[in-house]
């Protein structure tokens, strides 16, 4: 199986051909945004961070910003900083440059203020646009895809048909030699033993248990009942009664493939196959981590519906709830409620999801892309005291 992608100089393959403007600090957000908005195919990432970071928190933000810039969907990048922040523009640009793609950086203080920096940014982007235009789609094997799995706004149909249908497609990607990443460690609670049994060795199985225990112990140490947030009010209204039910549905997205390893947030998989990512499962932060880790495409299962997307990677929305598909048709790409209606087998629905993945990887626009849903948020190392 294959798709039409953009081959990069480092051998990776993109499903999109964006130029990315990366703001290193909140003070540079306006310049990054204004420069990027001057060009149709240029995207930007802005955030309220970049200063005062230390240790693991510094490395988390750096790996996320640089990971976005290194993602194969990015043809070239411009990094914009203020000049006096911890997260220096040159440092981020140097990390992005490891992907062998064109990257430049500017700082507002060195350029002489907002207006001059924006003008300089636009000049650089003109040159980067010329370089990006040289890439053309070519036939690429499915084995070169890193598929990120996400779910949000889950209901009873998510675990019954939505996630299992995506799981069929995920297994097909792995069987073709590709890579799949399952995040959301807080939503493995009560099902972690099933993931651990699928680990390729005992050490990885122990890491899966440890990841879940870490979140549980921190919540308990604060005297908080996790049932106040898991399942969410929307999950409960949608028919999910316990966190175990939610977790059993969540892990179905990953099919039945062996677990090759456990990744840190935004960490690139060291090999191919199914990997897990240790992070708390907040939708936008989770998708951001998957893309920073190299995912060129995301499947997002939802029972209740959600409009969210990403600045540089297509996000395919899949629902098992036909009422949601009709009610939020602006946002949902696929309806697999046909399984519950007896009109389609799980295998056939999964094959349909895989077909959609290949078409989107080849350039078909998702509804989130059409609506310009380009959310971005970083999971900070100090969050949840972990």
Q: Can you summarize the main beta sheet?
A: 7 strands, parallel
Helix content: 25-40%
Cα-atom Rg, whole angstroms? Answer: 20 Å
First CA to last CA: what distance? Answer: 41 Å
Helix and strand composition category: alpha/beta
Order of helices and strands: EEEHEHEHEHHEEHEHHHHEEHEEHEHH
Mean pLDDT: 94
The number of distinct structural domains comes to 2
Which spans have pLDDT < 50 for at least 5 consecutive residues?
A: none
> What would the principal axes of the Cα set say about the shape?
globular
Spatial order of the strands forming the largest sheet: 10-11-9-8-12-13-14
Q: What's the count of strands?
A: 14
- Counting H and I runs of at least 4 residues, what is the number of helices? 14
Strand coverage percent? 15-25%
Detailed description of the structure:
- This protein has 386 residues and is an alpha/beta fold.
- It has 2 domains: 18-132, Response regulator (Rossmann fold), CATH 3.40.50.2300; 142-385.
- The protein is 39% helix and 17% strand.
- It contains 14 helices and 14 strands.
- The chain has helices spanning 29-36, 55-70, 89-97, 108-111, 114-132, 156-175, 192-197, 202-221, 233-237, 243-250, 283-292, 322-327, 346-361, 367-370, and strands at 2-7, 13-14, 18-23, 42-45, 74-81, 103-107, 138-141, 146-151, 179-182, 259-263, 273-277, 297-301, 315-319, 334-335.
- The strands form 3 sheets. It has a 7-stranded parallel beta sheet with strand order 10-11-9-8-12-13-14, with helices on both faces. The protein has a 4-stranded parallel beta sheet with strand order 4-3-5-6, sandwiched between helices.
- The longest helix has 20 residues, at 156-175.
- The radius of gyration is 20 Å and the shape is globular.
- The chain starts with a strand and ends in a 16-residue tail after the last helix.
């Amino acid at each position: 199986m294959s798709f039409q992608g953009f081959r990069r100089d480092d051998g990776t393959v993109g499903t999109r051909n964006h130029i990315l403007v990366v703001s290193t600090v909140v003070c540079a957000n306006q310049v990054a945004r204004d420069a990027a908005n001057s060009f149709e195919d240029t995207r930007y990432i802005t955030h309220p961070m970049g200063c005062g970071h230390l240790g693991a928190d510094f490395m988390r933000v750096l790996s996320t910003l640089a990971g976005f810039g290194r993602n194969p969907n990015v043809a070239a990048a411009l990094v914009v900083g203020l000049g006096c922040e911890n997260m220096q523009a040159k440092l981020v640009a140097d990390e992005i440059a490891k992907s062998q793609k064109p990257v430049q950086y500017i700082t507002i203080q060195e350029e002489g203020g907002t207006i001059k920096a924006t003008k300089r940014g636009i000049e650089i982007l003109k040159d980067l646009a010329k370089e990006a235009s040289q890439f053309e789609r070519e036939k690429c094997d499915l084995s070169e895809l890193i598929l990120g799995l996400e779910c949000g706004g889950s209901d009873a149909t998510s675990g019954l048909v939505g996630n299992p249908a995506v799981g069929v497609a995920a297994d097909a990607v792995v069987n073709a030699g590709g890579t799949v990443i399952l995040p959301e460690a807080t939503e493995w609670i009560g099902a972690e033993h099933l993931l651990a049994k699928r680990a390729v060795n005992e050490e990885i199985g122990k890491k899966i248990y440890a990841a879940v225990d870490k979140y549980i112990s921190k919540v308990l140490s604060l005297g908080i009942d996790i049932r106040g947030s898991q399942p969410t009010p929307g999950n409960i209204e949608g028919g999910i009664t316990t966190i175990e039910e939610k977790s059993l549905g969540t892990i179905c997205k990953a099919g039945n493939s062996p677990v090759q390893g456990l990744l840190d947030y935004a960490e690139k998989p060291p090999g191919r196959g199914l990997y897990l990512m240790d992070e708390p499962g907040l939708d936008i932060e989770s998708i951001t981590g998957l893309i920073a880790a190299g995912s060129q495409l995301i499947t997002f299962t939802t029972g209740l519906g959600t409009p969210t997307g990403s600045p540089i990677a297509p996000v395919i929305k899949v629902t098992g709830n036909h009422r949601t598909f009709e009610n939020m048709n602006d946002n949902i790409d696929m309806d697999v409620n046909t399984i519950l209606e007896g009109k389609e087998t799980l295998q056939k629905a999964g094959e349909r999801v895989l077909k959609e993945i290949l078409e989107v990887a080849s350039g078909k626009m998702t509804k989130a892309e059409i609506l310009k849903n380009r959310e971005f948020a970083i999971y900070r190392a100090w969050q949840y005291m972990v």
